[in-house]
Design goal:
The protein is α+β, with helices and mostly antiparallel strands and 333 residues long. Helices cover 17% and strands 25% of the residues. The protein is built from 6 helices and 16 strands. The structure holds 2-acetamido-2-deoxy-beta-D-glucopyranose (5 copies). One 2-acetamido-2-deoxy-beta-D-glucopyranose binds next to loops. Belongs to the zinc-containing alcohol dehydrogenase family.
Length: 333
Amino acid sequence: MVADLFVALLGLSTPLVSAVAPGLELTCSLNRATQGISISSDGRKFLSQRYSTSDPPQAVELLNDNSTRLYPNVAWNSYNSSNPNSNPRRTFVSIDGARIGPDGRYWLVDGGSQGVNGSSKLVGVNLTTDAVDKLYYLDSIIASSSSIDDVRFNAAGDVAYLSDTAGALLVLNMTTGKNILDNDYLLVGDIFATAWAGLDFSGFETGDSVAVFGSSPVGLLAALCHTPRGIRSILDYEPKGVKRSIDCIGYEAVNADLKHEQNIVINSMVSVTAQGGGIGLIGWFTAPGSSSGTPRGSTMSPTIEFPISDFFDKGLSMRSGAVDVLPSAPGAG
Ligand SMILES: *[C@@H]1O[C@H](CO)[C@@H](O)[C@H](O)[C@H]1NC(C)=O
Ligand SMILES: *[C@@H]1O[C@H](CO)[C@@H](O)[C@H](O)[C@H]1NC(C)=O
Ligand SMILES: *[C@@H]1O[C@H](CO)[C@@H](O)[C@H](O)[C@H]1NC(C)=O
Ligand SMILES: *[C@@H]1O[C@H](CO)[C@@H](O)[C@H](O)[C@H]1NC(C)=O
Ligand SMILES: *[C@@H]1O[C@H](CO)[C@@H](O)[C@H](O)[C@H]1NC(C)=O
């Protein structure tokens, strides 16, 4: 049935009866360009109709006799930008993506019109009452130069993920009606994944002692709330050295006199890491050269002096590199 309908939808204003592929059957022809179909759990069909140069976007229910009716009603589909009495807060101004949510509502994304306050919104229609009973205005969370065009929900149906035409993803807390800022996810994505990979790079196994160099967000997460210690105190605390160490600083490191000392962290790690231990290097070590974005880039040397004898005698291993976020934080994609 769904496949049949899609064929029909492609028919647009000229029924393509002769173009229907073998095995498919035409079940309905529509006179309006139709962008999406949503089918409720009890089989009701809703169409969002857009992409017409002459007709305003509208939402309709497709009835069993192949006719359509404006949905949820005429008023919601009556926006007229030339009429000052037309209320963009209570009408569809430019509907785009639409779908049945986990709560059973028919949700429509209204991309609105730039500069028209209240026109950009997420509209929830209760299919029992056929009335709009949830409405989120999005003016305050969209950028002035873009609009939203589609939506997905979490399983619980209380978070909406809205795609934005400029390529952003807006996350709406449907309980509060406020957006969840990207910053709330920042640590879960790059930072957490990098910290996690640092432990992996060091060869960490449960129970291993770890020295983390650098108290940046990455370092703090890698340390899982341990206070970073100096080399002396690490060895006071772990006289045989720690099993693993992680560099969360990179070659911009400074020494106790706040002088740039590119190899201080690596050398310290070799000092404090015990026989057979491992070193994870997630601090940055690419020599960028100078550019307008990195005016002091050429002060970073691509080579450093390294205590290779200690490294060899202790049988240490070391792994480094840029971190691929997706394996440890799949949601961050
Ligand atoms: C709906 O339209 C299709 C294609 O035009 C037609 O075959 C079918 O009989 C129609 N169904 C009803 C109930 O009118
Ligand atoms: C839109 O509003 C203008 C101004 O009131 C009116 O002239 C026009 O007929 C309206 N268009 C439609 C399609 O109702
Ligand atoms: C948009 O409408 C809200 C009320 O819903 C109001 O607080 C806000 O000032 C309006 N913004 C503009 C630019 O008119
Ligand atoms: C839809 O409205 C009915 C009747 O008011 C109500 O019982 C039901 O909970 C509403 N649906 C949702 C998803 O809130
Ligand atoms: C949404 O806001 C509510 C109320 O502040 C809060 O309890 C809930 O955790 C928030 N949901 C998300 C996903 O942030």
